[in-house]
């Protein structure tokens, strides 16, 4: 890849990361809602790789957000423990299922989740 294109590509990756981090800090979302579509459309990354990468991106974002939220004492630690227990089980199952779903179905399922979440947020 030509050096100027490489620099431009790295800038796009950093910009996607910045927007993802900002969204994560403000709304507690960003891994899937921002990273997956951005990686697919802007960075031209394959569907399964985009979803898997989004999961890996969540960890450092969550650690930073947790540190800041802890300093401001706005975390419900009792809920965190129980949600984390369920989240680990769901994460294991989801990661195994990701490898078995075709890119076309993965795209459709992800889109339906995004639409459902959007409608739920709008309706309150």
From TrEMBL:
<comment type="similarity">
    <text>Belongs to the 4-toluene sulfonate uptake permease (TSUP) (TC 2.A.102) family.</text>
</comment>
<keyword id="KW-1133">Transmembrane helix</keyword>
<protein>
    <recommendedName>
        <fullName>Probable membrane transporter protein</fullName>
    </recommendedName>
</protein>
<dbReference type="Pfam" id="PF01925">
    <property type="entry name" value="TauE"/>
</dbReference>
<feature type="transmembrane region" description="Helical">
    <location>
        <begin position="51"/>
        <end position="69"/>
    </location>
</feature>
<dbReference type="InterPro" id="IPR051598">
    <property type="entry name" value="TSUP/Inactive_protease-like"/>
</dbReference>
<feature type="transmembrane region" description="Helical">
    <location>
        <begin position="12"/>
        <end position="39"/>
    </location>
</feature>
<keyword id="KW-0812">Transmembrane</keyword>
<keyword id="KW-1003">Cell membrane</keyword>
<feature type="transmembrane region" description="Helical">
    <location>
        <begin position="81"/>
        <end position="99"/>
    </location>
</feature>
<dbReference type="InterPro" id="IPR002781">
    <property type="entry name" value="TM_pro_TauE-like"/>
</dbReference>
<keyword id="KW-0472">Membrane</keyword>
């Amino acid at each position: 890849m030509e050096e100027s294109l490489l620099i431009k590509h790295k800038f796009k990756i950093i910009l996607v990361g910045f927007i993802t981090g900002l969204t994560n800090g403000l709304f507690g979302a960003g891994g899937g809602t921002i990273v997956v579509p951005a990686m697919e459309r802007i960075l031209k990354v394959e569907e399964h790789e985009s979803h898997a990468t989004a999961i890996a991106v969540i960890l450092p974002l969550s650690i930073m957000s947790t540190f800041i939220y802890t300093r401001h004492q706005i975390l419900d630690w009792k809920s965190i423990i129980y949600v984390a227990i369920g989240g680990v089980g769901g994460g294991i199952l989801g990661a195994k299922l990701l490898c078995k779903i075709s890119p076309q179905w993965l795209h459709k399922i992800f889109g339906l989740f995004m639409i459902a979440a959007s409608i739920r947020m709008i309706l309150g």
